[in-house]
């Protein structure tokens, strides 16, 4: 029976235990999105305590996809040296180092990007602050190329894996949700069509990172909003993503965001049942997430087979030594 501190073998890669530091924006980059010394200190301190894998926060693949001031960027080769120092610092602590690549889509603001937000369809989306403009097909091709270029930079910087962000109402999530995708072309309508952009991104990214590195996808498997993506569709999407070459699915919320609207702020593992459903449908390892802070809870989720890896977010922000203390707690 697997436990929180059992290794996990995925393809050619061995993850030393099941603890994942998920991507959490800390907004410490400079105006160009470059890595700061504070970034390196933040991640290195946590990597040294025994975390299995660290996913560096969402990093924008194009300037028009920047979501917040201080957000990390991966849109230009000039950023590679700083990203390389960050990857090295994480790996020096023994953790696998990965980075999440993203485009903010309709949740971006012109005050930050200097241009109108871009999305699947025209209009104001949930979580957005101003009307977005629908991408045309040529612009979609350019988005795919931007993700592939970002993945190339991640590999040149020395990261062990790449995670594509398809959750929380950002661009890829907007395409998948029927609430924000009202297109009538090949990117709209059926789930297969709404997922097309994500599949094209994966098809472009997979050969860039090669067969020996892991490809993760953060799947917003349920919008948790009336008329939005359902769990059943999320499970179907998970299966299609796995067939497209995703090694691990990082299961979270869709358009509704990273927390259920009715979360009490106390209960742990609120997206774990969703992860378990996706795991059964997709038949690839999944990351379970949702306010998990107690080592015993994390261990039991792995033991029960609901998830293969456990994302510990806020608890790691509050206590950099969480992983080391969890090993002591669990014996």
What does this structure look like?
This protein has helices spanning 37-47, 80-92, 110-113, 137-156, 171-176, 191-194, 196-209, 231-243, 272-282, 295-304, 314-318, 322-330, and strands spanning 8-10, 13-15, 19-21, 53-60, 96-102, 118-119, 133-134, 161-166, 214-220, 248-252, 286-288, 309-311. By secondary structure, the chain is an alpha/beta fold. The strands form three sheets. An eight-stranded parallel β-barrel has the order 3-4-5-8-9-10-11-12, surrounded by six helices. The protein has a two-stranded antiparallel ribbon with strand order 1-2. Strands 6-7 form a two-stranded parallel ribbon. α1 (37-47) packs parallel to α2 and α4 (137-156) runs parallel beside α7 (196-209). It is globular and about 55 Å long. The two termini are 16 Å apart. The model has no long low-confidence stretch (mean pLDDT 97).
């Amino acid at each position: 029976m697997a436990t929180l501190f059992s290794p996990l073998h995925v393809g050619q890669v061995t993850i030393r235990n099941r603890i994942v530091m998920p991507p959490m924006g800390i907004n410490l980059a400079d105006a160009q999105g470059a890595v700061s010394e504070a970034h390196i200190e933040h991640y290195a301190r946590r990597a040294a305590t025994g975390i299995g894998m660290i996913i560096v926060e969402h990093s924008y693949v194009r300037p028009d996809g920047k979501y917040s001031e201080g957000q990390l960027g991966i849109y230009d080769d000039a950023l590679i040296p700083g990203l390389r120092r960050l990857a090295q610092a994480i790996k020096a602590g023994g953790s696998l180092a990965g980075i999440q690549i993203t485009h903010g889509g309709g949740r971006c603001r012109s005050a930050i990007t200097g241009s109108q937000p871009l999305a699947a369809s025209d209009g104001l989306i949930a979580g957005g602050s101003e009307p977005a403009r629908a991408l045309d097909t040529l612009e979609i091709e350019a988005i795919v190329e931007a993700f592939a270029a970002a993945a190339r930079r991640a590999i040149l910087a020395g990261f062990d894996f790449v995670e594509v962000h398809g959750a929380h109402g950002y661009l890829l999530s907007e395409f998948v949700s029927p609430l924000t995708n009202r297109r009538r072309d090949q990117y709209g309508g059926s789930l297969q069509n709404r997922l097309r952009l994500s599949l094209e991104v994966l098809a472009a990214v997979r050969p860039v990172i090669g067969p020996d590195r892991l490809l993760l996808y953060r799947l917003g498997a349920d919008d948790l909003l009336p008329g939005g993506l359902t769990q059943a569709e999320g499970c179907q999407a998970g299966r299609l993503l796995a067939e497209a070459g995703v090694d691990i699915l990082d299961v979270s919320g869709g358009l509704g965001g990273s927390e259920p609207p009715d979360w009490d702020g106390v209960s742990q593992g609120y997206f774990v049942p969703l992860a378990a459903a996706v795991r059964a449908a997709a038949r690839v390892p999944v990351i379970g997430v949702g306010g998990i802070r107690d080592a015993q809870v994390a261990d039991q989720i792995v033991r029960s087979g609901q998830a293969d890896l456990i994302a510990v977010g806020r608890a790691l922000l509050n206590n950099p030594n969480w992983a080391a203390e969890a090993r002591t707690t669990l014996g």
